[in-house]
Specification:
The chain is mainly alpha-helical and 314 residues long. Helix content is 76%, strand content 1%. A two-stranded antiparallel sheet has the order 1-2.
């Protein structure tokens, strides 16, 4: 198990190193002068030179990269020139919105998808299976912002049960914070649940055709017990893969939903930093998101080893 973990950690470190090179290089080759874009076309040359010096744009490319990576290793992500605040503080302020939102959406997606996948797999070829998978196909095809608009109209405008947007802050209380994130979490969870339910059904159908499942049924084990105890556990590898990918997407890819519900999350922070050409913020946030994806994938690999001990030797 130790060798398994060390191998996964080494792969994760190599991924982060490669990602840092790609992120830094892509932002460096973007056209335009960041100082000119930030100060405007009427800025004086002295002001531009001072800002370039402050941002380190006058240093050689390799020196700037090493300085940036060295800062990341000690937790110094630089200082935003747009917000006049350390990037790590901006991330902390936005992560308290995006992280709970992603967790809520992932929990909702899992709670919906796995029972639906089990239900459809246990009724393969029947009308219930067709209806369940047809509904899932509809959920895959429809974008999450459409679900968001429908949810806002029904639950915020018509029934007036939850706010249509905004975030009051956790200092306003736990329930008001959860209430403001409930509709965005559902809007994010529905398409992900549709994908996960289809993957769960496919994995279960493959497992249900195995000899040991037929043997368990021949011994008189209840169908529900066979499904939950034997079939689902052995079908969890692809399900865990999709769950890991979904959490990474929910954490990093919520720009549209955060704009629809006017939530001050990481997605909006990245979007605003890109439009304002605040490269320090973009680089820092993107690397944090990449690190979160790598960590989630390592945790998923550990879950693989717990579900199937044979994988610990690979």
């Amino acid at each position: 198990m130790t060798a398994f973990l060390l191998k996964r950690l080494a792969i994760g470190f190599a991924t982060l190193l490669l990602a840092s090179i790609v992120v830094f290089s892509v932002l460096e080759i973007l056209p335009g002068d960041p100082a000119q874009l930030m100060l405007g076309m009427n800025a004086t040359e002295d002001a531009l030179q001072a800002l370039r010096e402050q941002m380190g744009l006058n240093k050689p490319l390799l020196t700037r990269y090493l300085d940036w990576v060295g800062g990341l290793l000690v937790g110094d992500f630089g200082r935003s020139f747009t917000y006049s605040s350390p990037v790590i503080e901006l991330v902390g302020e936005r992560a308290v919105v995006s992280l709970p939102l992603a967790v809520m959406a992932l929990v909702l997606s899992t709670v919906i998808a796995i029972p639906v996948g089990l239900f459809a797999a246990s009724r393969r070829g029947r009308a219930a299976d067709t209806v369940a998978m047809g509904t899932a196909q509809f959920g895959v095809a429809v974008p999450n912002f459409w679900f968001a608009l429908i949810l806002i109209y029904i639950f915020a405008v018509w029934l007036r049960l939850v706010p249509a947007g905004g975030f009051p802050g956790w200092q306003a209380g736990l329930w008001p914070g959860i209430k403001s994130l409930l509709l965005p979490a559902i809007a994010l969870a529905l398409p992900q649940a549709a994908i996960l339910s289809r993957v769960t059904r496919s994995a279960l159908l493959e497992v249900l055709g195995e000899d040991y499942i037929r043997t368990a049924r021949a011994k008189g084990m209840p169908r529900r017990y066979v499904l939950w105890r034997h079939a689902l556990r052995n079908a969890m590898i692809p399900v865990l893969t999709i769950l890991g990918l979904q959490f990474a997407f929910l954490l990093a890819g919520t720009i549209i939903i955060e704009n629809v519900f006017y939530l001050p999350g990481l997605g909006r922070l990245v979007f605003q930093a890109i439009t304002q050409r605040d490269l320090i913020v973009v680089e820092g946030v993107v690397m944090l998101l990449v690190a979160s994806v790598v960590i989630v994938n390592i945790l998923v690999d550990i879950c693989y080893a717990m579900v199937d001990p044979r994988l610990r030797t690979r």
